Amino acid sequence: MLNKSIGSIFLFCLFVFSFISCNNEIEVETSNSTQIEEKTETKSDTAMKPISEMSYQEASENMLRALAAGKEVNAYAEKFAAANLEQLAAEVNTDVKRKAFWINIYNAYIQKLLTENPSLYDDRDKFFGEDRFIIAGKEISFDKVEHGIIRSSTMKLSGGYVGEIFVGGYEKKLRTEEVDPRIHFAVNCGAKDCPMIHVLSPATVDAQLEKMTQTYLNEVTEYDPKTKIAKATPLMSWFRGDFEGKSGGIKFLKKYGIIPTEATDVKLEFKDYDWTLNTGMFAEQ
């Protein structure tokens, strides 16, 4: 009789313990589920941040993403047009930030305008040279963005050797301080031979430019070790001052492993450029 009572008490205790453990597991699962849902909601909230609440850098990145997804981007254009010049200059206040922001802007507006009206590309000089869009209350051209701001007030047709003489206050506030030759492998002007478009951010732009430069040079450059002739993109000829001349161009190609570092008496030649209009060249992000 005593053994039966002990057995019953044991079974009862076991039942109670199992019930409590089960409840605890349910609470833990519910808590974990709630945390996952909260994280998901937070991520969703960040992605859905109103354009008016985005920084100018965030807006430049998201405008490119929207274009890649085939979405409407006029609200971004309105934000940039209405931007306060002093606030923009204060936010984009280092060369790292300027390169990320302005390359995004250049690439975004190229895609926007040429997708909307491909015939603009029929006269490329006019397309790049005339004012096309508004940033911080000022209508500007693609040439102004590329050569005035990204290339630190360098004359377009000087081969990269001569700076602009008369530079306005707008450009002075926004331009880079030093010319980075790697930008030529990130700026996409709409042509078939342009580099792929990447969304650039200040935190990663240096590593991104390194990778983009390496990728582009690997794809387009040819080197014959027998003749010691390297055939490179004409970008390195048009802007040879940015690469410190032909000798600097050879050093540049050696830096990225296109030409063996021990190679001597290398001759640098330049290929033709395919200007065929080719929008939508977005790299996988």
What does this structure look like?
- With 285 residues, the protein is mostly helical.
- Helix content is 52%, strand content 6%.
- The protein contains eleven helices and five strands; from the N terminus they run H-H-H-H-H-H-E-E-H-H-H-E-E-H-H-E.
- The protein has helices at residues 2-47, 56-68, 74-81, 85-91, 95-116, 124-129, 142-150, 169-174, 205-220, 235-238, 245-255, and strands spanning 133-135, 138-140, 222-224, 229-232, 267-270.
- Helix 2 (56-68) packs antiparallel against helix 3, helix 2 runs parallel beside helix 5 (95-116) and helix 5 (95-116) runs antiparallel to helix 7 (142-150).
- The protein is globular, with a radius of gyration of 28 Å.
- It starts with a helix and ends in a 15-residue tail after the last strand.
